[in-house]
């Protein structure tokens, strides 16, 4: 920013406005003649005054009555005009349950809930204080700013080696010879404000001492207030040898707060303050400020200046490598009972070191208790396992905003845009990828929770509750949650709009099925069992609506058939039109999308959902016929003969989709006319023969869904055929897991467009391999193919 908006911290003193004193009214003597006239009419004046007061009172009362009626009459009109797609489901929210309030809510208030950056901290509230780390990396003799997780940074390692999802995490980042180890710790002590305190330790080392650019490191730790509250520096000059306090302020949620910096190493500290409503472009602001300093003064340092009333403060911390810093945040300061010094000491130095060691030991012990792997796998596998759960929990984020929903062409809603906004909502969720997909995806979350519920059932229920509360009145949940400016900044425009006709695999039923089964087997404590039961009772009406949405909107043209909606039947640029709603994106389906398709994977997902709903009704002994209804649906969908009639290819012993299909399609370069009639070339799909209704002959994950869902009878010859497909290196088997698509497929590892490399056309996906392993384990429990299945299960496990 330029002009007088920026000034030094020394001049940031708030000036109080002078209070003007008003002149007293002059007391003038009334004219005696006038007073006489008034006395003569005195009785009339009094009667008139009484009538005016009564009239005014009546008018005011009438005004409020009319206003009340208008507001209450308009609300139904507004509700009638509001499209159903953005109308919340009319039932009590799951997250309003008492078990998610009080101590539980406060214990999860602060966290590393910004998975899209290498280190980011925020609270679970829509307008939070937000903290984060940037640093200057060196690559090929040039400086680069690191902040947002992205593969183009080419870090050889980044990720949480330990994280318990609540109050502790440890992360290692290796950036071209420089190693940063970041530790996060949360504490709730006497004197703390709501949510307690937290601290970050950053340990910087370098392997390349002989390189001048890596002898010193430049870190940038920032604090931002999304609510726009002004942040205050501790003083004009930041000298942590004299005073560790960097910044302070006050908020409604945590009260007074302070941010400190402590280190035994020799540090140089500079700062910049910014006033901006957005933080998703903070990297650019910092780089612009540094660039200006380099051009003017030849110094790679922030200018020690600030905008008026900054809501973002960035602190540059520079030192010779190696060095270590502690950055504690204290809440509830400013009171005599705050115990600031004691709390500060416990979150820095040797006290912090001891606490971090203790937390790591607790993590290791809990890992062994939850998964019992020490005697089963080697030490390297244990490290990988701990990193897997650590990254899953460390990748949990909190988001707030409004999804953009695509408007149907025949809608009556008046809008200049092609979308309508969902209601403002919050989402607490794990994410599939911190670099590519740092946001909530509905079908991914079911797989995430298969791991998380075994670690922390309360976090699991909290996450599922947030997702189910996003349901609209029709029982639909947007499959991809792009909430807030930070999340939106990572998404290409073509994927922003959510389509209310499109679903996503209801994988949350995987977790719920596990929970119900474990409840019946008394796997939980009494308190956990009560909380799970309360959750399921509150969630049941939403789960019912979700099931019915799938059962009605995704049903096919034959009984017990289903197909994924949302495929583009008009595209000329895709080799095989994607099925994003299935979660399997470019997995080969019928070459020509139509309403006559039958998708075998969706049929199996519906069986899982029906079985889960049936088990919940059994658990709570529902007496309104629901138990019988869901039981009948599950029985129909598990009917082996019907499944085989619709989807089995007997020659391969494999299950295929059905639809309007031809194998003779290809992408060819064609010359087209672009803007200003300029000629250019692009890949366009060619169909070389007329498609026909048939099975779609591609062996891959979809072919194994009936096997995963354990529909195939143990004595069936088809089961042996499935085992052959799994174990055959010419089809699916590799030393690293099963391929998503057989090497024999005509689309194996083929690009779908000029810019879309193969995604589900050969690459190995862990979630599907997990489900196949589960089925192998199930079938290995005593049948005629026992030896073969046990051997295959063992090989795939390792």
From TrEMBL:
It is found in: Endoplasmic reticulum membrane. The keyword Transmembrane applies. Cleaves the distal alpha 1,2-linked glucose residue from the Glc(3)Man(9)GlcNAc(2) oligosaccharide precursor. This is Mannosyl-oligosaccharide glucosidase. Residues 22-35 have a biased composition (Basic and acidic residues). InterPro entries: 6-hairpin_glycosidase_sf, 6hp_glycosidase-like_sf, Glyco_hydro_63_C, Glyco_hydro_63N, Glyco_hydro_63N_sf, Glycoside_hydrolase_63. It catalyses: N(4)-(alpha-D-Glc-(1->2)-alpha-D-Glc-(1->3)-alpha-D-Glc-(1->3)-alpha-D-Man-(1->2)-alpha-D-Man-(1->2)-alpha-D-Man-(1->3)-[alpha-D-Man-(1->2)-alpha-D-Man-(1->3)-[alpha-D-Man-(1->2)-alpha-D-Man-(1->6)]-alpha-D-Man-(1->6)]-beta-D-Man-(1->4)-beta-D-GlcNAc-(1->4)-beta-D-GlcNAc)-L-asparaginyl-[protein] + H2O = N(4)-(alpha-D-Glc-(1->3)-alpha-D-Glc-(1->3)-alpha-D-Man-(1->2)-alpha-D-Man-(1->2)-alpha-D-Man-(1->3)-[alpha-D-Man-(1->2)-alpha-D-Man-(1->3)-[alpha-D-Man-(1->2)-alpha-D-Man-(1->6)]-alpha-D-Man-(1->6)]-beta-D-Man-(1->4)-beta-D-GlcNAc-(1->4)-beta-D-GlcNAc)-L-asparaginyl-[protein] + beta-D-glucose. The lineage of its organism: Eukaryota, Viridiplantae, Streptophyta, Embryophyta, Tracheophyta. It comes from Vitis vinifera (Grape). It comes from the Eukaryota.
